[in-house]
Amino acid sequence: MKAMVLPRLVSLQDSQKPLELRELPDPSPREAEILIRISACGVCHTELDEIEGRTAPAHLPIVLGHEVVGAVAALGPHANRFVEGER
């Protein structure tokens, strides 16, 4: 999968492109999880704080983004709230 990755904390004044496009292994949904094929992802103020280090991310490198639009691509075991293809 392609993902925009934050490899290190940076000042947005010093870096116009803090994220790097990387090819990562395709994830698989685990117990009671779903996999979503993302079609759009927003960046909110929390991510800006993480990029600049005001709110430390859990680890680096990290894929930011929690405001997404997509469709269910796969279901893990016992994931029954959604169906594949559902937005």
Shape: elongated
H/E element string?
EEEHEE
- Average pLDDT across residues? 93
Oligomeric nature of the chains: single chain
Instruction: Give a count of the beta strands, DSSP E runs of length 2 or more.
Output: 5
Structural class assignment:
mainly beta
Q: What fraction of residues sit in β-strands? A: 25-35%
Cα distance spanning the termini? 19 Å
What Rg is obtained from the alpha carbons, in whole angstroms?
15 Å
Numbering strands along the chain, what is their spatial order in the largest sheet?
2-1-4
Q: Largest sheet at a glance? A: 3 strands, antiparallel
The amount of helix comes to under 10%
Any low-confidence stretches, pLDDT <50, length ≥5?
Answer: none
Please describe what this structure looks like:
This protein is mainly beta and 87 residues long. 9% of the residues lie in helices and 33% in strands. It is built from 1 helix and 5 strands; from the N terminus they run βββαββ. The protein has one helix at residues 45-52, and strands at residues 2-6, 20-23, 34-42, 62-63, 67-75. A 3-stranded antiparallel sheet has the order 2-1-4, with no helix packed on it. A two-stranded antiparallel sheet has the order 3-5. The protein starts with a strand and ends in a 12-residue tail after the last strand. The model has no long low-confidence stretch (mean pLDDT 93).
